[in-house]
Design goal:
By secondary structure, the chain is mainly α. It has 11 helices and 2 strands. The radius of gyration is 19 Å and the shape is globular.
Length: about 250
């Protein structure tokens, strides 16, 4: 394992993250704070509790997942797309480093950035609502797994994208709607029976449900099902990345 190469990629990506503090940290925190004000205060005054939890506290796991998923995808996709755009990807491919080490460097940095944002938003949430974490270790595990799995997905998007417009296409048209419809601001048990069945085809439901269980001890789907869903998604992303480097698809073109 070439740890020098991995640490170099990781350090470079993290340095870029901290060079753009306003965009990388302040912007998502302010956006999430607005969600707390709008949903927690305005709608929370009309919906007192959901499953025995105050509405303001109930939406915290969903808001963290929304930010973490978005940040993991955007950081990973841009991290690998930019070397493709300026042509330095060929220097990376010709270096004595295999694809697994490249993925660890880029995905590890993107996951770290998303985790950093998630922790900051969690701390911010304590200033707006009272939160208790029933299963802190499970909460950390779900958060880390989500950061890694969606950073892998972002890495795939970055390789697939042929322009900056395509780089934003999947997050805007697919991922963001799935997150909003995945129970970020409501419990799927509040939906009509037909829509409850449809919601179970949304993979984000399992992520948010498991993460919410770690906070409040209640979930829309069984916790083991949520863990299995995350594991399958992560494995699928890793298989796709292996195939990409094995065939050279969108890399050596």
């Amino acid at each position: 394992m070439n740890w020098t190469a991995i640490s170099s990629i990781y350090a470079f990506e993290m340095a870029r993250f901290f060079r753009t503090i306003a965009q990388s940290i302040i912007s998502p925190v302010l956006s999430t704070s607005l969600y707390f004000v709008v949903f927690g205060a305005a709608i929370g005054s009309r919906i007192q509790e959901v499953e025995g939890v105050s509405y303001g506290a109930f939406i915290v796991p969903g808001l963290i997942m929304l930010s973490v998923i978005t940040q993991a995808i955007s950081n990973a996709s841009f991290g690998i797309y930019f070397p493709k755009f300026i042509g330095t990807i060929f220097e990376l491919l010709s270096a004595p480093i295999n694809f697994f080490e490249i993925v660890i460097g880029y995905v590890g940095a993107a996951a770290t950035k998303a985790l950093f944002i998630g922790v900051i938003i969690l701390i911010t949430a304590f200033f707006f609502v009272e939160i208790s974490i029933a299963h802190p270790f499970a909460m950390v595990a779900f958060l880390v797994l989500t950061c890694i799995s969606f950073a892998l997905m972002g890495f795939i998007i970055g390789i697939w994208a042929g322009s900056f417009e395509q780089l934003q296409l999947v997050p805007l048209l697919i991922v963001t709607p799935l997150v909003f419809l995945g129970g970020s601001f409501y419990s799927i048990s509040m939906l009509p029976p037909v829509w409850q069945v449809i919601s179970h085809f949304n993979p984000v439901v399992y992520l948010i449900s498991g993460f919410r269980w770690a906070f409040f001890g209640s979930a829309d789907v069984p916790i083991l099902t949520s863990l299995l869903a995350i594991g399958l998604f992560t494995g699928l992303c890793m298989a796709v990345i292996w195939w990409i480097f094995h065939t050279g698809w969108r890399i050596r073109q």
